[in-house]
Design a protein that fits this description.
There is one protein chain. With 233 residues, this protein is α/β, with parallel strands linked by helices. The chain folds into 2 domains: 118 residues, Rossmann fold (3-Layer(aba) Sandwich); 96 residues, Orthogonal Bundle (Arc Repressor Mutant, subunit A). The protein has 8 helices and 14 strands. It has a 5-stranded parallel beta sheet with strand order 2-1-3-6-7, sandwiched between helices. The protein has a 4-stranded antiparallel beta sheet with strand order 8-9-10-11, with no helix packed on it. Helix 6 packs across helix 8. The protein is globular and about 55 Å long. The chain binds calcium ion. The site of calcium ion (CA) has 5 residues, from strand 4.
């Protein structure tokens, strides 16, 4: 099945590069250089759009207005690409329904990896959530509430386990501080980011070969945390 990507980017050089790279990967690409073009392509795309790659700074407006419209109409994953690198902005976009956010310049490999995560996540949205996570010797079974590292059981406290479970359910995606605090501790704790730092430190001490150089549990500064995506099944 060919997946259709709506690519919205006004920089002609970057648009051409991304279009070529995505086509090589087997995607069908609808390319737009403005909000008006993007809206027209979105409305008339035959067979629909499976994923949107959205630049923010466009000649006839801000990509965020298109994000708002897409979210009202569909659950199509949206990856924002932008030169803007404000943490407040990133959090705002994720809360507004963007699936992920890449700051320019980014590598093509990174874009493709994030696209795969977003597509897989949407594709499995109607199936039972991921309950088993395996990556580089780390095994987490949410149903059995068990964690193993290179074949050895790892003991986690209930809070550590709950935090890890939230990241496993969205493996490969950044999960905001606010979302983690609300889900693990409760909605009244969303400002208590020091809890997260403490418990993430404990998780890294148990799960990372070198907690100072994490290879599994990544910090997205000022935004949240990301658990590296699982090994392919
Ligand atoms: Ca732009």
């Amino acid at each position: 099945m060919t997946l259709t990507v709506l690519l919205v980017e006004d920089d002609r050089e970057l648009r051409r590069t991304l279009r070529g790279a995505l086509e090589v990967e087997g995607y069908r690409v609808l390319a737009a250089a403005s909000l008006a073009d993007a809206t027209a392509l979105w409305s008339h795309a035959e067979g629909g759009v499976d994923l949107v790659v959205l630049d923010l700074g466009l000649p006839d407006g801000d990509g965020q207005t298109l994000l708002a419209r897409l979210r009202r109409e569909a659950s199509t994953p949206v990856l924002v690409i932008s030169a803007r690198d404000g943490d407040g902005q990133k959090i705002g976009l994720l809360d507004a329904g963007a699936d992920d956010y890449l700051v320019k310049p980014f590598s093509l490999g990174e874009l493709l990896a994030r696209m795969r995560v977003a597509l897989r996540r949407r594709g499995t949205a109607l199936q039972p959530a991921l309950t088993r996570y395996v990556r580089d010797g780390l095994e987490v079974d949410l149903a059995a509430r068990s964690v193993g590292l290179h074949g050895q059981p790892v003991h986690l406290t209930p809070t550590e386990f709950e935090l890890l479970a939230q990241l496993v359910r969205r493996a490969g995606q950044v999960v905001t501080h606010r979302a983690l605090l609300a889900e693990v501790w409760g909605p009244e704790f969303t400002e208590h980011t020091h809890y997260l730092r403490l418990y993430m430190g404990q998780l890294r001490a148990k799960l990372e070969a070198d907690p100072a150089e994490p290879q599994r549990l990544f910090t997205e500064p000022g935004v949240g945390y990301r658990l590296v995506e699982p090994d392919p099944p």
